[in-house]
Design a protein that fits this description.
It contains eleven helices and no strands. The chain has one domain (about 1-250). By secondary structure, the protein is mostly helical. Helix 2 (about 15-45) packs parallel to helix 6 (about 95-125). The longest helix is centred in the middle third of the chain and has 34 residues, at about 95-125. The protein has helices at about 1-15, 15-45, 55, 60-80, 80-90, 95-125, 140-165, 170-190, 195-200, 205-210, 225-250. It is globular and about 65 Å long. The model has no long low-confidence stretch (mean pLDDT about 90).
Length: about 250
């Protein structure tokens, strides 16, 4: 298993798509700085201003970028035909898939938390002494949301890996991730009450605030999940996707 992990880590860090995906996620730091500079300038004019925290406003960029990394980890091998060589080297597909999931999970967890923490720190340093709302919360109170955000990005990357293994198409897997992250929440808004609120609480983008013990909004109050339940739902997404991906990887020929 150790040799397979080393091999998967070598493959992940030897392709440019890994750096492109992480680089795209790192843009969150620059966008966070630009956003904070903008709102601090407005606050200087108005005296006070309520603004969204940049690490939350730009979280979808981190999630989507790292999800693409998860997708490409498996679909790029199918596109180039390297999956045949990989399966000859590691014929036990469960070991191979577990190693890929482990490397993707560890890499994206570290990357997501580092990016979000850096965005958090730089925005607070720039906004120091100004009343912007997001910089008035103590770090200990904001830490649960920060950790939940990093975990959500890792979960979505593993979803991308699982879906990529199932459909074997980069475009199809990325479209599935985009649907999960952006399309389904919009569709839920058009469901009749009270199903719109009930369904919305279980959708991927709405799990982070619930994991941090925050209500989504007053209209979603009756569908609020406790933190442990929200965490369980979040973990269900990658577990189901990886299970389906492994089933298809084991069932079909390369």
């Amino acid at each position: 298993m150790k040799a397979v992990l080393s091999s998967e880590w070598l493959k992940l860090r030897s392709v440019t798509s890994t750096y492109h995906s992480i680089g795209a996620a790192t843009l969150t730091v620059l966008l966070g700085i630009a956003w904070t500079l903008y709102v601090t300038a407005l606050a200087d004019e108005r005296g006070t201003l309520r603004a969204a925290a940049p690490e939350q406003g730009f979280l979808p960029l981190v999630q989507l970028s790292l999800a693409v990394l998860g997708v490409l980890t498996i679909t790029s091998e199918y596109a180039t035909g390297m999956v045949r060589t990989t399966l000859i080297t590691v014929p036990k597909r469960s070991t191979l898939f577990l190693a890929k999931a482990g490397i993707v999970g560890a890499t994206t967890l570290v990357a997501a938390n580092a990016i979000l923490l850096l965005t958090y720190a730089t925005s607070r340093l720039i906004a120091e002494g100004r009343h912007l709302g997001f910089n008035e919360t103590p770090f200990t109170e904001g830490l649960p949301t920060l950790l939940a955000s990093g975990l959500s990005a890792t979960a979505l990357a593993l979803v991308g890996l699982g879906v990529g293994a199932a459909v074997r198409s980069t475009a199809g897997a990325i479209m599935s991730v985009v649907t999960l992250l952006f399309v389904l929440p919009g569709v839920a808004n058009y469901l009749p009450a009270p199903w719109n609120t009930r369904v919305a609480t279980f959708l991927f983008p709405n799990l982070v605030p619930q994991m941090a013990d925050q209500r989504l909004s007053s209209r979603l109050g009756d569908g609020f999940l406790p933190p442990w339940a929200a965490l369980g739902v979040l973990l269900t997404y990658p577990l189901v996707a990886l299970a389906v991906g492994y089933y298809e990887l084991k069932r079909r020929d390369a």
